[in-house]
Amino acid sequence: MGSMRLLPHPATEDIELTEVLRALSDPIRLKIVARLATVGEMTCGEAGDHLGVHKSTTSHHHRTLREAGVVCTKQEGRMKYISLRRDDLDARFPGLLDSILAASGDASPSAASRDQSVLAASGERGRR
Amino acid sequence: MGSMRLLPHPATEDIELTEVLRALSDPIRLKIVARLATVGEMTCGEAGDHLGVHKSTTSHHHRTLREAGVVCTKQEGRMKYISLRRDDLDARFPGLLDSILAASGDASPSAASRDQSVLAASGERGRR
DNA sequence: CGCATTGTTTGACAACCATAAAACAATGCG
DNA sequence: CGCATTGTTTTATGGTTGTCAAACAATGCG
Fold it and tell me: DSSP 3-state assignment of A93?
């Protein structure tokens, strides 16, 4: 049962700034990341439902984010959960993710309620 | 003679996060911005010489950065100087530019004079 | 005025990208 | 085991991008 595998992703020191910025420069991927910051983790189907894109497109975005070092994927059963690599990103590029998350909250009109969750998730990070 | 024109660029509130991230996700443009952070301003030819790309390519990158709201262009005589829109970016996306500049200093070993100049330029603005 | 200097625009080209559909793979459930 | 569920890979397509070269435009200098 609970065989939990972790998919390969780049080491922290191999994460490149331009690739992270490029990964986050796509609106859909930015939404995925913003949502991950509040929700913690997410399956592929969940992301697709929430964003209204095809599942293969979602899979592609997840791969892009993973290869850029922004998320890591953990397989549990037949689902695959992706989650933010917050600690790794903070270690490599201090403050970057937080400022991007805060900025992504500003940009959306319905950010008022969401904004606090983002900040809360940002401050409550301590495990993993 | 002293006629100084300013080229059109997006208003602060129209700067979009994804476009800024996309503009900075190109290594050459990131170098341009990192250098602007230390040097203050720069002509097109200066940038081209320093980066080893064709002048038309440089011009294209300058346009991309300007349209994304990252730099503004000021024409003086027959030169055009570009400079970072630090205040506007800080107002719209607090902390974003600073964290990217700090990260770009860490990531690029080829940048000869870097982090302490970045901090100096950032500190000369009175904030932080 | 002519001309060199400084950038921009256009054209061309190869590479990459976001997207979707369909085929494929893996996994657990009954 | 068969099968539904969950994602990935493949294939195709339309759009975008980075690059250079060449033509064009603007500007000040002599």
Answer: coil
Structure tokens at B40: 């203050």
Q: pTM for the whole thing?
A: 0.85
Q: Which amino acid is it at B9?
A: H
Q: Which nucleotides in chain C lie less than 7 Å from some protein C-beta?
A: 5-11, 17-23, 26-29
Asked if A107 lies within 8 A of B17 by C-beta distance, the reply is yes
Percent of chain A with pLDDT over 70: 80
8 Å CB contact between A25 and A43: no
Tokens coding B98:
């600073």
Q: If interface means Cβ-Cβ distance under 8 Å, which residues of chain A face chain B?
A: 16-19, 21-22, 24-27, 30, 92-96, 98-100, 102-104, 106-107
Cross-chain residue pair A102–B92, CB shorter than 8 Å:
no
- Per-position DSSP letters for B46-101, written without gaps between them: HHHHHHT--HHHHHHHHHHHHHHTSEEEEEETTEEEEEE-HHHHHHHSTTHHHHHH
- The residues of chain B scoring below 50 in pLDDT are 1, 108-128
How many angstroms separate the Cα of B44 from the Cα of each of A80, B5, B20, B30? 48, 16, 20, 15
